[in-house]
Structure formats: structure tokens, C-alpha cells
Amino acid sequence: MKSLYTLTALFFMLAGCTNHSQNPAGTSVKKSTDQSLHKDPLKTDMELAIVNHAGSAQRWLESIFRCTDPSSGKYCYYLDKEEALCTKQFWKFLQDSNEIYGPSNLTDEELPKAEAAYKAKWKKIYPLYTEETWLFGRGNDDALDIKDVKIDKITESKFIVFIDYGDNIRTKNEVQLVSEQGSYKIDYCKTTFLH
Prior knowledge:
Layout: H1 2-16, H2 41-51, H3 56-64, E1 75-77, H4 82-85, H5 88-101, H6 110-122, E2 143-146, E3 148-153, E4 158-166, E5 169-180, E6 183-194
Antiparallel strand pairs: 1-2, 3-4, 4-5, 5-6
Helix pairs in contact: 2-3, 5-6
């Protein structure tokens, strides 16, 4: 009986060591050489960051600021990517806080109620925002000519991101990342405007 187990184990070890690319069902896997994956440099960089484990969180953060158009500046930030960068919970937090502290359709009567509901909902989850603050302190349009981005690693999942947008607008961003579905998402960002 022992030799049957030994032979079975040996068979599976040898089968796993072959050079054939197979999925768990044992069928061949076609490796894609489709260049269409490389049309979006941000996506490509994020995918590469996932593959490379050492320092992958920092590389993922760096990829956020890569320009898709070579005629842009050295660093860019695209608003249409913002929601995908955040956890669903943090994205909802951003929306809720900026509904209160940013331009709003709330009346003078509705504002105190909305602010109380915001505080009750989020105070145990995130440090609360008290003024309009979007991710990385960005403005209301794509930033296509960011002067400088510097990322300092604090822990495996926490980073300080310094951004110089130019025109004397600089931010310090304490960013908390979480692993989600084989990639990273921003789960909190505390932005401070530097003078």
C-alpha cells in the first residue's frame, strides 16, 4: 500500500515539473501575445506590479502617475482612473465627505443633518475629512504636467506620496493600501497641502 502512495505522489510530482503550461484541469493554456493589453500604460504597469512581488505595492503606486501620452509631462494623474484606484468603501467615503464639504446642492437646513449622518456613518471607520479633499489633493481636471512625485515607504502597505503639481501647489499624502483581487487599492488617503 505504501508503494502505491509513493508511486502516486511521484507521478504527481513529475507531472508538475514538466514544461507544459497546463491549468488545473490538465488542458493546455494558450499564452497571449496580444499587444492590445499594452495600449493602456497605467494598466500594464499595474499588471506588472502584481507579477513582481518585491516592492509591488510601491510600483503600483508609481504606476498611478505614469502618463499615457508621451507629449504630456513626466507625471500625470487621470480622473477617470480614480474610482478604480480606491476600495469601494473609501470611494464612498470620498463622495460622502465631498458632498458635504465641497460644492453641494444641500440647503442650509439639510447640511447639518447630512454632516451628522456623515460623522455617524464614518467616524469609526476613517479619520473624518473636514474640508473638500479629493484623492491626492487633485483639482477638477486631469493633471497632465505634474512636476514631481516622490513616494516613501513607511510599511508594506503604508506610503507617503509627495506631489508637486506646479504653480506652488504641493501635497503630502499618507496612503494606506490593501490587497484586493491580486492587485492593490487605496483604502485611505490623508492629504495635507504644503506651503
